[in-house]
Amino acid sequence: MNTFEYIKKRCSKLEAERQTWEDHWQDILDYVMPRKADVTFVRSKGEKRTEVLYDSTAITANNLLAASLQGTLTSASLPWFHLKLRDTTLNEDREIQLWLEDSAKRMYETFNESNFNTEVHELYLDLVSIGTGAIFVEEGNKGFDKEGIHFNCLHIAEYFIQENINGKVDTLYRKYKLTARQAIQEFGEENIGEKILEASKEKPDKQFNFIHAVEPTEDYERALGETGTKLPVHSCHVCVEDKMKVRTGGYNEFPYLVPRWSKATGEIFGRSPSYNALPDIKTLNKAVEIGLKAWAKAIDPPLLVQDDGVIGRVRMTPAGITVVRNDGAIKPLQIGSNWQITDMKENQLRTAIRQAYYSDQLQLQEGPQMTATEVQVRYELMQRLLGPTLGRFQSEFLNPLIERVFGIMYRAGALMQEPEIIKGTKIDVEYLGPLARSQRMEESVAIERLYSLAMNIAQIDPAIMDNIDHDEAVRLRGKLLGVPKTVLRGKDDVEGLRAMRAEQAQMAQMAQEQQALGKAQKDQAQAAKILADPNVSSGLEDTVQEMGMENLQNEYGQGS
Predict the structure, then answer these.
(1) 426-455 b/e with 16+ CB inside 10 Å = b?
(2) Rg (CA), the chain
(3) Distance CA 146, CA 140 (A)
(4) What burial letters (b/e) apply to 141-176, b meaning 16+ CB within 10 Å?
């Protein structure tokens, strides 16, 4: 069995295993995200897809939850992660801190310069609607220096996945189409088959089917009994029509990131809030449809006409005249619709749908501007609601994403040369988004409360403040708030600054003491010089005598 036969056979097997999910996805997408409702059948481009929808509550709730996740986890305007070393002792080194800070900054620039924010939004929409999303991360065909990193969110109908023993997706087969022209651009004329070459001359826009197989190299080698790439992940593109390989290679990291919202035991694909909300979504859509029909009948009711009581036809236009015979009056048919009950039921269904998508908790309430405390409370509520899901996001999406982007940039030389001491050291990620920060905010609040308590007691006993390590408190508080490393000085820098400040203070004190001593010596010498002058001495004696006579006169009276 050659490579093409192996990939074609395994792709068909994975596709067959996925078929039980496809009806669910089609059903959900029809009501929640109709623009992507191409699973069990393919619609024409530009075809209307909302003809059967009468209510958009689910669509709006799905978009709101996806946007909220993107804004709180991978915001385009705020830093949402920073790098650190697993060896905590090295994290205190100033040179290492600056290198980690600079590396994270360069990665932010790469994300913002690419199509990441656009494609990741589609990923969040897929997660919220059908529970599974996949995004491809790879540098451009011309290399990182020229094209940076490219992201591509896949449609659920395109790919098939398999897990390893640890429940991690490590195998993905993707079916996709390229025109003959695009195939030549992607793989080169020397790597494609005769059918594509022939079509490129006369029908360059003719489409061909391709399969991209990505799996552990050891699985590929075991299946075919041949040596694959030296990299841990094997990659191969095949053309179905030409039955041949068009590109083979490998990756240092698994290039497809496949997060799931939640996952039942034994299942591979995820489940989403839409699964729980779908019965209410369908019921609401039907209720609104029936309500609209009843509303139309109430506004423009059917008419009751006596047999042979109308001459000509009934004229329904404004100012229309209808001639009737005696007792041939036209009467509207009264529809006994209870609009109050109908509206109440529809509102109940809308509330249930919004609750399934956490819309009430995520949407800011109308009214005065929220305080910082109120915003924090809102994030803490989101954390409690989405905590289990966020844990899966980190392990299946965020962590592999940072690892993949960092690896591409490191190998491309797009990062500063790391300090020699950390080569080979494991780098971890710490997330700084609002939800991640709210998880650690209790520590920050505890520090503030401790300082408030200690300052109150310090009014009685100032020595109580000795119990607090102020340096560590400030550093921990800055870390919890997501303060950049460049803002806070390193411990060595702080100690050096304090030593210099103490030395300057000591030198200033010594100079002041020396100045005071010199002044005293100068005054003493000046006094001795004055006393040694004969004229000054005689003047002083006369002054003393005069003072003595004055005192006698004051004591005994003048002229006695």
Answers:
(1) ebebebbbbbbbbbbbeebeebeeebeeee
(2) 41
(3) 8
(4) eeebeeebbebbbbebbebbbbeeeeeebbbbbbeb
**DSSP secondary structure letters along 454-492:** HHHHHTT-GGGGGGS-HHHHHHHHHHHTT--TTTSPPHH
Q: Please state, for a pLDDT cut of 70, what percent of the chain lies above it.
A: 82
Write down how long the chain is.
560
Instruction: Tell me whether strands 207-216 and 169-179 are parallel, antiparallel or unpaired.
Output: antiparallel
Single pTM value for the model: 0.78
> What are the Cα distances from residue 128, in Å, to 32, 80, 483, 525?
10, 21, 32, 92
Closest by alpha carbon to 60, among 128, 117, 13?
Answer: 128
Cβ neighbors of 428 (< 8 A, separation 6 or more) are 83, 84, 85, 86
Token couple for 549: 């006579």
Q: Write the pLDDT tens digit of every residue in 402-423.
A: 999 999 999 999 999 988 888 8
Contacts of 401 (CB under 8 A, 6+ apart): 137, 257
Please report where in the chains the tokens 């035991």 appear, as a residue.
265
On whether the CB atoms of residues 288 and 269 are closer than 8 A, the answer is: no
What is the rounded CA–CA span in Å between residue 524 and residue 233?
Answer: 90
Tell me the per-residue pLDDT of 95-126, one tens digit each, with 9 for 90 and over.
888 899 999 999 999 999 999 999 999 999 99
Name the residue type at position 246.
V
**297 to each of 290, 336, 337, 344, 345, how far by Cα in Å?**
11, 10, 10, 20, 20
Name the amino acid, one letter, at 108.
Y
Q: DSSP 3-state assignment of 76? A: coil
For 237-282, give the secondary structure using H, E and C: EEECCCCEEEEEEEECCCCEECCECECCCCCCCCECHHHHHHHHHH
Task: Check residue 193 and report its DSSP letter.
Answer: -
